[in-house]
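Why this split exists: single-chain examples teach little about how molecules sit against one another. For that reason, every record in the complexes split bundles all components of an assembly together and asks for one structure covering all of them. Below is a record exactly as it appears in the raw files.
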Amino acid sequence: MPTTRATTKDRSAVRTLLRLWPYVRPVRARLLTAAAVAVLASCVGLVIPLVLKWMVDGPVADRDPAGVWLGALYLLLLGVGEAVLFGLRRWLVARPLSSVEAGMRADLYRHLQRLPVAFHDRWASGQLLSRGTTDLMLLRMFLAFPLTFLLVNFVTILIGVVIMVLQDWTLGLVILGPAVPVMVMCVIFEKRYAHVARLAQDQVGDLTTVVEESVLGIRIIKGFGRHRSQARAFRELARTLRGTELRKAGLLATIWAVIVTLPEAAIGAALVVGSVQVADGSLTAGTLVAFLSTALALRWPVESIGFLLAMSQEAATATERYFEVMDEAPEDPAVGADAERAGERGLRFHGVRFRYPDAPPDSPPVLDHVDLHIRPGESMALVGATGSGKTTLTALVPRLYEVTSGRITLDGADIAAMSREELRAQVAMAFEEPTLFSASVGENVLMGAGDSAGAAELNRALAVAQADFAHALPQGTDTQVGEQGLSLSGGQRQRLALARAVVGRPRFLVLDDPLSALDVHTEAAVEAALRDVLADTTALIVAHRPSTVLLADRVALLSGGRITAVGTHHELLRTNAEYAHLMSGTEEAEDER
Amino acid sequence: MTAPTTSVPTADDEPDLPRPKDAGDPFDRDVLPTPPGATRALLRSLLAPMKARVAFTSFLLLLQQAAVQAGPLLVAYAIDSAVPAFRRDDHGPLIAVGAGYLLCALVSGGLQYAFVIASTRVNQDVLLDLRGRIFRHAQALSIDFHERYTSGRLISRSTTDVESLRELLNEGLQELVTVVLSFVYISAMLLWLDLGLGAVAVASFVPLYLLVRVYRRRAVRVYRVRSTAIAAVIVKFVETMNGIRPVRAFRREAANDAEFRVLNRRHERVNGDALLEMARYVVGSRLVANTAVAVIVLWGAYRVAGGSLELGVLAAAVLYLRRLYDPIDRLGMFLNSYQSAAASLEKIAGLLAQTPSVPAPSEPRELPPLKSEHPGREVVFDGVRFGYRTGGEVLPRFDLTLPAGQTVAVVGSTGAGKSTLAKLLARFYDPSDGRVLLDGVDLRDLAVPELRRGVVMVTQEAFLFSGTVAENIAIGRPDATREEIERAAKAIGAHEFISSLPDGYDTDVRKRGGRISAGQRQLVAFARALLADPAVLILDEATSSLDIPGERAVQRAMLTVLRGRTAVVIAHRLSTVEIADRVLVMEHGRIVEDGTPADLIAGTGRFADLHRAWRDSLA
């Protein structure tokens, strides 16, 4: 299963969570105010028992109606105050917290867009998506509750204990008894929980990946009637996740039981000791009531520590997962150094060697010393056996991958010295897999041009790519396509992708098997139109078929990671056996007969 | 690996004029039409099998609450009875109080443990059930559904939407049960302690109820909007990540950032709205609760002063009161997660309410035994017509018989209906009229396993699943041995490149060094089909990314593999035709030429033209 998972090192949850600071910083004032308000609100909650005590020992015992009224009025005021403070806290954080979440998501998206393509090869998008959704929601919840309430509860417990100790120090000590064992348990719990929480989150990511693949590969699953085995695989993963969740629950249940039992037992002990003191007359009934009332008011703050810690731990894991991706270095920014424009014009590969960055260093490189010169205005077909590295070679030109060694120059300028922005503005591409985005047909095509391009350029490009069908769509070129629009056929998408590549009249054009999904007639028409475009464009065209090769002025043969021959189609057919084989397959076909 | 296919599965090779999409298309919205009450029915059906366990879990909580709530009662008893007894040197009652309290502590801790475990089990089983249902249902829905419901939406149904139910079950249900139990329990206690005080407490439930109702109504709206907003974010996210190459090559990063910002902002706003609704609710509920406490204390204190109420009872009542209203916030949280889950469940219910347009047969039939030793079967299109549900005819009525064992090439321009023909035969679609028969049996009467022993289709989108190369081939026949897998790969010419991968057949296609080119993926897809060993094999543009020798190798393999099998080969390239016994030329959904390759080439029709053009292109 596709698990992209960092080694879970021993790490401190606090240190991990501190990394959130840059995102929290802009809202720190609000967050701090909210915490202060929350502390205040829970202090009000603690004062209420004191008022009760005062009423019981004073007006009630003295049968003083005015005092009773006054006490009730105090209670009411405190109650209103508490309610307003509660609301205020939530109001203070509502917008800021959703903006923190949104900000982190936007940053993640922005960063992912700029990570090397090799990174995306490694990471299933389900894993990335789960970081952008569930993990961030966890973080928002952490900022809303555990962060504030761990602080608030701590302060509340502290104040409560002080009040209790002040009322009666022996009873106070009794109540404090379980503090140490509870804390020890919490530390142990935290460590174990961290591990399981991380496991669960990764398994959610795996599950997402299976869902995604089962949707993207639905035709294969249906075509082979495999939805049952797919469902079984899914079920197994879901079961594993369930197992992990149960382990998590086991830990949570244990800590919770400890946190409930020990303080409750302490309260029981305090009750007995207090009752003895009341019987002795060394303590008033009112004080005991107030004391116990305070102790009970502390119950929730103490009990909630268990799940607050659990949530914090999950938030730490989510943070870790988030930064795992954010820490990946993006493509290094524009170098922008003045590239000296030496040497020949055109597109040139100088001793280019390439191995995928994640491939073992001892593996043979995909491309090994590629030398090729495409003269300005020339179009060069790139021919090679399946898997020979043609697509890889084309991906090097717009720097989707970086050459391992060697250089690629555009009109003499090393592409490594150019900013990617500038480079990609000069080089247009059409991929073998034509991807359309959720936008109108027109927008999809015009992506390949500058901002000034308009209807005229669009129509020209559609005409070149024989994609005039676009005008006949329900809303013409304004018809929405992509994920949320009309679905087009493979051939239609390929033609739009081609239109996108040529619309900006790029100086350099890289086409990866651009006509594979077209029928012979359409292909011929596209070729005729492309010839005009190619006349003044420097182009590299991956080709499988003679018809596509004939578009080009010359042909380069890629074999064993090198360019082994360059020449015109006819020259190579005559002189190069491998090429002749690739273009006609005759040699073996004849063996057959 | 190469980027996974990013595109929505499309109706490949449909006419250039795609299906009309009228303005009222339900698929334009995030929520599919859901029959009234479907959401609740879904929740009920999820919880129904858990009834006994939910009851048991609630019972645990009931006991636990009983243990917890006994505290104040013991306090009252200690102050009113044990202290006076202690003064009389009767230590028994106080010892009993201490022992009782300790017992309560232990029992409530133990029950808490048992409850968390039991409730998590229930929750996880419900989630497992729901996840499985969504997954199985999505898999059972027909291709035309998947062509319209985007992958991003389907993913968000089974991730964030399930997640919100998880939150409801994990925290919400416990909250609800605790809240209800402690309300009932404490009210009963208060009434028992003192009827008057209890009545006031119960009366305060009326404004609380009204408050809850108002909140609920407002929250429904907010959460519905929120869940749609996050789905839009997800769709954009997935689309970008899957299309990262063109994103980079066309410098879409900044434009994407801007578009994403709009979607993300929208979600941020409704998210804030939802949190604010909650804030309003909390203020309201606290006000009601604290006012009620003040009133009860006032009245109680008056009566103690007047001597009609014991001090201990008032003390206990006040302790209970504080607890009575404590869970109101938690009730709010429950409503929160309930609304959020309800909005999600509504969408899930909408998805589950979709019926497959290609339904499974109610009384499946079996294919007749093979007539010869060859695996092929006869295919008959009997008065078949096909149009989309939304209108627009793709195939006008036509009849066609493919004898068992025949290899038929279908050619024609883009949009002639070749792929539709293939999809009808593979039963990705059902015909609007007429029948498709396999050895005389209507495809609609065949159960899936039987159908797939009969017909298998290889398309040009050669998607690879996570896992090893061998696993990907084995999709054709999961019980195949390694030997059989390798044999299939060898037959198709894929063995060589697979062996050169770092771990050979065990190379993980998503891990280091597992990059597999488009052509190689098509070879894997072929090997998969070979392994499936069907009676009828459909190849839809299955060699489009192969180089010519690769294609030749496949064709040579096909000569052996297809012998005796019925095959339908769709290709834009005419090279395929060389292995065909018969050629069909299609135009605008009709078969315009039909004959052996030799006859058609010798003739003067379209095929002869096409063939000449193709020959020239090879020159």
